[in-house]
C-alpha cells in the first residue's frame, strides 16, 4: 500500500502571485551527490518522474503553515510549496529541514540571513530575543518604531514575530484599540494602524491564524481603518456588517465550512480593499497571505464537492419551474462563484469537479437559465458556460448532439447562445464578443476528438450545419437582400463583423460543410453586398471572407465565383474608393495580386475578360497589367497547344535535365553502333523520335511568322551562307530530310573545313552526336549550332566566346547535313 504520509502536491508561485499546481507525488529527503547536500525529492505518483529536486540550503527560510504546508523561496521571485496529505508527513519532513539547518522543529519558520553587515548579524545572533515594550497606551509610539525598524532585517523580523506570537500580543493590542476608539484617541489609533500593518508584513501563518479568527478579525479591520495618510477613517466594518450579507441559497449544515467561507471572504476583502497596495519591496512580504487565501479556497471547493446533498438540492432548485426568479438568480450567482473557486484546484481535482457538475445536470440547468429575461442572470449563466467550454468543449458538444434528438432547433443550447449573441443590447457588444469566442472554441476542429469508433468532428459539424448555421447567418441574409445593406448603423455593423469573423474561421478550418453551405445558399454574394457599407471595417471583413475563399484555390469555389460574377462588387468598391491610398485599396489589390502570382488561370481569364476596362487605367501598381499578360500567355498556349508542348520539351531538355536521365541517355548513346547510322543522321532521345517532322514544323513555323525576325542582327545573319562570329540568341529552326534532329554547339570556322574533326565529311562525326540536339540551319546554308548547356554551366557559357565544338572529342561531334 502506498505511504500516504509522504504524499504531497507541489506548487509554484507564478508572476501573477497565484499558485500553480505542478503535480502530485511522494516526497523524500536524501543526500544528492550532484548538489553536495541533503535535498528534498518529489517523484510523481503517476510515472515516477522527478517533480522536484531542491537542496535544503542552510540560509533559506522555510515556513510551516496550517500543519500541512511547507513554503520557501528557491530564488528571487520563485516560491515553492509542498502540501501534505497528512500532518505526520509534514512534521517528518519539517524535522529533517530543521535538522539540516540546526533549528528547533518547534519553530514555524527558519532563519534567513541576507543583506546584513557582519556587525548587525553578530548583534542579532548574540541577543537571546527581542523584548517588546509593555502593551500600554503611552508605549504605542515606541512599539510602532520597533516594528518599523525590524522589518528590513529578516532576523529581526523573525524575532519580532516570535515575541508577538509567544506573548499573545495581538489580543492585547486589540484591547488597546477598543480603548483608543472609545476615547477617540486619534494619535493612538494611527500608531495601531502602523503596528498592525507591520504585523501583516511579518508574513507569518501563526499570526494570521490569530488575526483572522472570528473574535479578532473585525477589530483587525478596525485598526486598518485609521490610515494616518487619510483625513477621515474608512468604514470597512460598516460595509462588512451592514452592506455585505452572507446568503445561504442552500443551507450549509457543516459549521466548519460556513466559518471557512466567512473567513475567506473577509481575508480576501482585507487583501483587496483594506491593506494599501504593497510596494515592490513589500509584495513578497505578503506571500503567506496569498497562500492562506488560495488554500482556503481549495478547501472550500473540496468540502462543497463532497457534500452530495448540498449539490443535489442546488441543481434541483435551479431546474425546478416553481423556483421564483430572485431565488434562481441567487443560485446562479452562487454557482458562478463556485466555478470561479474551482480554478484554484489542481488539474485532476478540477476534472472530478466538472464531472460532478456534469452528472448533476449543469448543462440542462444552464439551458433553463439562458431562457430567462433577466440580463444579470443570463450574464452569470454565460460566465458559467464559458468555464465549461474552456475546460471541456467535447462535453458540451456531446450534450447538444444528444439534445438535438429530442428537442426542436429553436430551444437547442447552441442556438440559445447564438440568439443571445445576435440580440446583445450592449452598444459595444461585449457579451456578443464573449459568446462568439465560445462558439469558435466549439467549432474548432483542433480540439475535437477522433477515435476508432467515432469521429467527433464529422458528427458535430454535420449537426451544426444542419441545425444551427441558419440561425447564425440569419442577420447577414436579412440585411443583404438589396445592392446595399438594408441597415447600416454601427451596432448592426459590429454584429455582422462578428458573424463574418466566425464564417471566415469556418472557411479556414471546415472543408465540404462550409463549401456546400456557401454555394447552396449563395452566401458569398450576400457577403459582398457589405463592401458597399459606410463602415470600412465591415467592408474589410467581407473582403477578408472572399480572400480566404480565393486562397483555397478550389475550383468549385472558383466556378461559383465566375458563374455569379462575384468580382463585380469588389471591382465596384475599388473604383468607388478612387485614388485614396487606404486599407480597402490595399486589400483589394492584394487579392488580385494573389490571383496573378499563384497563376489561378480560371480567375485570371474571368477578371480580364469581364473587368479589364475598369482596371486598365490603374498604373500605380503593375498587378492588373501583370494579370493581362498572364491572360495573353494563356490564350497563346490555348491557340497553339502543339507549340506549348514543344516549348515544354525544349524547356525540359535545355534547362531541367535530370542527372539520372542524362546518365541513362549517355549510356544508350555510347552503346549505339556507329555503323548502324547513315551519313546525315543524328542521334536523338527516344521520346523525340516519336515526333514527326510535320507535327513539329507546323507550330514552329507559326511561331516564327509571329516573331517576324524583328531583330536587325538576325536579318544580317540570314543573308550569309556561313558562320561569322557568335550568333544572336534569336534564330530560326529547320530540319534536314531526316526525321531525326540534332542540336550542337556552334562550330568555329576551322571546324567546317573538309577533313576537320567537326566537318560533315570527317569519319565518325555523325555517329557520336549528343542525344538532346537539334540542327539549326538557314535557307542559305549552315548558320550555326546553338548548344543549351545544363543550368550550372549557363553563366560560364555566356562569358566564353569560343565554340564548345572545339573542346569536344571528334567522336562526340555531330554529323551535319550541308
UniProtKB/TrEMBL annotation:
Question: In what ranges is there compositional bias, type Acidic residues?
Answer: 672-681, 788-803
Which PANTHER family does its entry note? ATP SYNTHASE GAMMA-RELATED, SERINE_THREONINE-PROTEIN PHOSPHATASE 4 REGULATORY SUBUNIT 3A
Q: Which residues form the PP4R3 EVH1-like domain?
A: 5-101
Describe the task this protein carries out. Regulatory subunit of serine/threonine-protein phosphatase 4.
Q: Which Pfam families match?
A: EVH1_PP4R3, PP4R3
For this entry, the protein name equals: Serine/threonine-protein phosphatase 4 regulatory subunit 3
Q: Span of the secretion signal?
A: none
Q: Where is this region: Disordered?
A: 672-695, 707-818
Origin superkingdom: Eukaryota
Quote the biased-composition stretches of kind Low complexity, using this chain's numbering.
Answer: 742-756
Q: What is the lineage of its organism?
A: Eukaryota, Metazoa, Chordata, Craniata, Vertebrata
Similarity-based family: Belongs to the SMEK family.
Q: Where is the composition biased (Polar residues)?
A: 724-741
Q: Which SUPFAM superfamilies match?
A: ARM repeat, PH domain-like
Amino acid at each position: 500500500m502506498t505511504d500516504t504520509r509522504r504524499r504531497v502536491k507541489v506548487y509554484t508561485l507564478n508572476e501573477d502571485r497565484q499558485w500553480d499546481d505542478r503535480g502530485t507525488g511522494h516526497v523524500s529527503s536524501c543526500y544528492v551527490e550532484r548538489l553536495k547536500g541533503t535535498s528534498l525529492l518529489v517523484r510523481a505518483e503517476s510515472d515516477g518522474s522527478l517533480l522536484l529536486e531542491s537542496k535544503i540550503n542552510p540560509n533559506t527560510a522555510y515556513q510551516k503553515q496550517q500543519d500541512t504546508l511547507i513554503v520557501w523561496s528557491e530564488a528571487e521571485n520563485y516560491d515553492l510549496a509542498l502540501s501534505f496529505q497528512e500532518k505526520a508527513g509534514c512534521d517528518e519532513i519539517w524535522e529533517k529541514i530543521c535538522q539540516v539547518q540546526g533549528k528547533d522543529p518547534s519553530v514555524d519558520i527558519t532563519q534567513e540571513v541576507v543583506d546584513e553587515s557582519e556587525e548587525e548579524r553578530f548583534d542579532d545572533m548574540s541577543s537571546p530575543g527581542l523584548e517588546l515594550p509593555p502593551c500600554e497606551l503611552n508605549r504605542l509610539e515606541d512599539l510602532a518604531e520597533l516594528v518599523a525598524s525590524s522589518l528590513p532585517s529578516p532576523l529581526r523580523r523573525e524575532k519580532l514575530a516570535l515575541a508577538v506570537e509567544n506573548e499573545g500580543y495581538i489580543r492585547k493590542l486589540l484591547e488597546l484599540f477598543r480603548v483608543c476608539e472609545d476615547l477617540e484617541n486619534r494619535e493612538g489609533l494611527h500608531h495601531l494602524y502602523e503596528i498592525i500593518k507591520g504585523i501583516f508584513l511579518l508574513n507569518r501563518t501563526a499570526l494570521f491564524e490569530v488575526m483572522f479568527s472570528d473574535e479578532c478579525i473585525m477589530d483587525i479591520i478596525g485598526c486598518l481603518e485609521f490610515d494616518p495618510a487619510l483625513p477621515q477613517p474608512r468604514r470597512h466594518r460598516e460595509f462588512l456588517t451592514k452592506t455585505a450579507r452572507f446568503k445561504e441559497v442552500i443551507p450549509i449544515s457543516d459549521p466548519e465550512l460556513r466559518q471557512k467561507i466567512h473567513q475567506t471572504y473577509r481575508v480576501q476583502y482585507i487583501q483587496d480593499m483594506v491593506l494599501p497596495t504593497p510596494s515592490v519591496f513589500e509584495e513578497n512580504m505578503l506571500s503567506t497571505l496569498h497562500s492562506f487565501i488560495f488554500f482556503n479556497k481549495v478547501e472550500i471547493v473540496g468540502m462543497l464537492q463532497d457534500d452530495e446533498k448540498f449539490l443535489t438540492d442546488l441543481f434541483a432548485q435551479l431546474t425546478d419551474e416553481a423556483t421564483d426568479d430572485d431565488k434562481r438568480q441567487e443560485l446562479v450567482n452562487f454557482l458562478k462563484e463556485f466555478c470561479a473557486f474551482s480554478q484554484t484546484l489542481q488539474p485532476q481535482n478540477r476534472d472530478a469537479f466538472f464531472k460532478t457538475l456534469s452528472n448533476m445536470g449543469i448543462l440542462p440547468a444552464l439551458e433553463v437559465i439562458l431562457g430567462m429575461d433577466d440580463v444579470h442572470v443570463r450574464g452569470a449563466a454565460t460566465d458559467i458556460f464559458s468555464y465549461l467550454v474552456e475546460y471541456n468543449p467535447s462535453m458540451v458538444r456531446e450534450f447538444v448532439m444528444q439534445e438535438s434528438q429530442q428537442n426542436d432547433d429553436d430551444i437547442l443550447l447552441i442556438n440559445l447562445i447564438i440568439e443571445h449573441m445576435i440580440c446583445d443590447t450592449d452598444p459595444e457588444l461585449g457579451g456578443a464578443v464573449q459568446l462568439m469566442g465560445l462558439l469558435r472554441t466549439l467549432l474548432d476542429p483542433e480540439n475535437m476528438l477522433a477515435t476508432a469508433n467515432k469521429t467527433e468532428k464529422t458528427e458535430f459539424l454535420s449537426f451544426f450545419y444542419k441545425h444551427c448555421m441558419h440561425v447564425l447567418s440569419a442577420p447577414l441574409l436579412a440585411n443583404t437582400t438589396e445592392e446595399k445593406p438594408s441597415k447600416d448603423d454601427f451596432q448592426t455593423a459590429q454584429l455582422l463583423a462578428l458573424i463574418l469573423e466566425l464564417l471566415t474561421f469556418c472557411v479556414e478550418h471546415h472543408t465540404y460543410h462550409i463549401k456546400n453551405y456557401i454555394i447552396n445558399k449563395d452566401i458569398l454574394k450576400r457577403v459582398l453586398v457589405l463592401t458597399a457599407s459606410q463602415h470600412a471595417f465591415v467592408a474589410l471583413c467581407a473582403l477578408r471572407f472572399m480572400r480566404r475563399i480565393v486562397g483555397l484555390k478550389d475550383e468549385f469555389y472558383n466556378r461559383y465565383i465566375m458563374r455569379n460574377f462575384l468580382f463585380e462588387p469588389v471591382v465596384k468598391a475599388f473604383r468607388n474608393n478612387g485614388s485614396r491610398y487606404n486599407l480597402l485599396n490595399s486589400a483589394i489589390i492584394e487579392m488580385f495580386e494573389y490571383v496573378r502570382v499563384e497563376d489561378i488561370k480560371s480567375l485570371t481569364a474571368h477578371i480580364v475578360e469581364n473587368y479589364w476596362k475598369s482596371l486598365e487605367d490603374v498604373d500605380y501598381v503593375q498587378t492588373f497589367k501583370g494579370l493581362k499578360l498572364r491572360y495573353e500567355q494563356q490564350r497563346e498556349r490555348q491557340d497553339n497547344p502543339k507549340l506549348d508542348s514543344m516549348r515544354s520539351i525544349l524547356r525540359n531538355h535545355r534547362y531541367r535535365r535530370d542527372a539520372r536521365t542524362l546518365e541513362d541517355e549517355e549510356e544508350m548513346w555510347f552503346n549505339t553502333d556507329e555503323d548502324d547510322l547513315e551519313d546525315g543522321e543524328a542521334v536523338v532521345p527516344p521520346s523525340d523520335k516519336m515526333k514527326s517532322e510535320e507535327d513539329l514544323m507546323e507550330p514552329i513555323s507559326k511561331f516564327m511568322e509571329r516573331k517576324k525576325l524583328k531583330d536587325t542582327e538576325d536579318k544580317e545573319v540570314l543573308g550569309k551562307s556561313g558562320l561569322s562570329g557568335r550568333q544572336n540568341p534569336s534564330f530560326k529552326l529547320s530540319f534536314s530530310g531526316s526525321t531525326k534532329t540534332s542540336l550542337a554547339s556552334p562550330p568555329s570556322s576551322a571546324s567546317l573545313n573538309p577533313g576537320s574533326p567537326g566537318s560533315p565529311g570527317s569519319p565518325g562525326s555523325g555517329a557520336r552526336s549528343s542525344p538532346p540536339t537539334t540542327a539549326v540551319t538557314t535557307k542559305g546554308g549552315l548558320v550555326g549550332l546553338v548548344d543549351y548547356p545544363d543550368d550550372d554551366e549557363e553563366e560560364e557559357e555566356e562569358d566564353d566566346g569560343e565554340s564548345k565544338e572545339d573542346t569536344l572529342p571528334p567522336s562526340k561531334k555531330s554529323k551535319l547535313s550541308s
